Amino acid sequence: MIGTIYINGVIGEDTTLLDVIKQVKAQSTAESFLVKIDSQGGYVDAGNDIYNYLKNLSQSITTYTTRAFSIASVIFMSGDNRIIPDGAENALMIHLPWLEAAGDYSTLNEYLGELKATEDKLVKFYAEALDLDRDTIHSLLKSETYLSATQAIELGFATQLQVAPKAVAILHNNKEEKEESLMNKLNKKIDALMNLVSKKIKAELVLQDATGVELVFPDLDATEVPAVDAKIVVDNKPAEGEFIMPDGSTIIASNGEVKEIKTAEEEVSADEPEIEEPLAKAEIIKEVAKWEMDVINTSFEIGEILKYTYEEVEYSCGAGEYELADGSRIIADADGKIVEVKPAVAEPETDEASIDEPVESNNEDIEKLLGIIEVMAQKNVELETKFQALAKNIGSDFNPTNTKENKTNVKASTENTSRAFQILTSKIK
Predict the structure, then answer these.
(1) Chain-wide mean pLDDT for the chain?
(2) Which residues form a coiled coil (predicted)?
(3) Which of 33, 198, 326, 406 has the greatest number of beta carbons closer than 10 A?
């Protein structure tokens, strides 16, 4: 970005060092500065201060003038590149410093000493800047010399003449694009930026679009932001059309006013309407232990938002655990974002028949099984009787009352078997 600094009127009154500093600070992103001078001169100390400040800036400086008289010519010399319009008459004027003073002899004598010192510094400055001897410089200053654009180039005050544009008819070959030098582009910008400003400096807002065209907002300060209805000028004429800015936004102007400002996100081609992709219905999901709903999601990954529609309005599901058709479950937070996916758990296989399904069985087989169990129980009783007789023969303290308990146990076994038979037979119905 190229910043612009205006130096006008009387140096030290209409333009001060503080004015120049404010203009530079208001354009902190500028990579270089164009200093436009239109001044009849002014106070020597103020002019020297402005010159030193500009020379010490880290950005490159280009100065441009149609009138830089007296100490303003010193400020003009601060530019690395110094431009004067071709054909300009009396573009520069140099002379010996002078003063207005009143006082007694000693006071006036002191002033004269300061005046002489200022004169010597001015002669030395021009002699070193122009590579001329001091006597020649002193003669030019003493003669109050006015310089045209051509003379300024010949003496070394200016480094370049700005050539006035000429109307020509040229057949352009679109296949051959000529590259313009940086200085030629700068010349065109200078033409576009030349505005007759008042004696008081106004740091108006100047922006560049993506192609380098400078947009001037005369009613806005350099620190303000353009808005709708703001006045806008391009090439000294009311702006008209669309201007794409470096940040991707677009300023639309008509009759020198901003009609609309589109951000980069709002830019949609007029010839290519925005295409809305249809939302694929995923499936019906069920919030565990609550209800079922249709969702529009086509996938269920962590971080995705679980959404559904109601009366053509899209909503996010709330926090909860939802079951998919395949048995897997997803857990969403309050914003509907999926935070966990639980895979479906396969139910373990079992040999037991379902309660809802009838058991195919044969009553005869069951009766045979029960008969075997009863025979085994009887055998058990016979064995207990033999154990009791054996215990008596060997003098054991075996308590025959245990027989009752044993019979009870046998009976319990029989009852248990009967209960099993009831359960089995109940499933045959």
Answers:
(1) 75
(2) none
(3) 33
User: Residue 62: which pLDDT band, with cuts at 50, 70 and 90?
Assistant: very high
Helix (H) or strand (E) holding 36: strand 32-42
Q: How far is the C-alpha of 61 from the C-alpha of 71, rounded, in Å?
A: 18
- Cβ contacts of 318 within 8 Å, gap of 6 or more: 332, 334, 336
Using the Cα atoms of residue 303, residue 308, residue 309 and residue 315 in order, give the sign of their dihedral.
negative
Q: What is the spatial distance between Cα 38 and Cα 64, in angstroms, rounded to a whole number?
A: 9
Q: Is residue 398 within 8 Å of 386, Cβ to Cβ? A: no
69 phi, psi to nearest 5 deg:
-100, 150
Three-state SS at 206:
strand
pLDDT for 279-300, tens place per residue?
334 567 766 656 677 788 888 8
**3-class secondary structure, 234:** strand
Q: Shortest CA distance to 4 belongs to which of 249, 161, 216? A: 216
Look up residue 170 and give its amino acid: I
Please provide the DSSP assignment of 329-393 as one string.
EEEE-TTSBEEEEEPPPPPPP-SSPPTTSPPP--HHHHHHHHHHHHHHHHHHHHHHHHHHHHHHH
Nearest CA among 39, 6, 40 for reference residue 23: 6
Diameter of the chain measured on Cα atoms: 165
**Length of the chain, in residues:** 429
- pTM passes above 0.70: no
Torsional sign, CA 50, 55, 56, 60: positive
Reported as a single tens digit per residue, the pLDDT across 251-283 is 999 999 999 998 865 544 444 444 444 333 456
The two structure tokens encoding residue 154: 């010949």
- The 10 Å Cβ neighbour count of residue 285 is 22
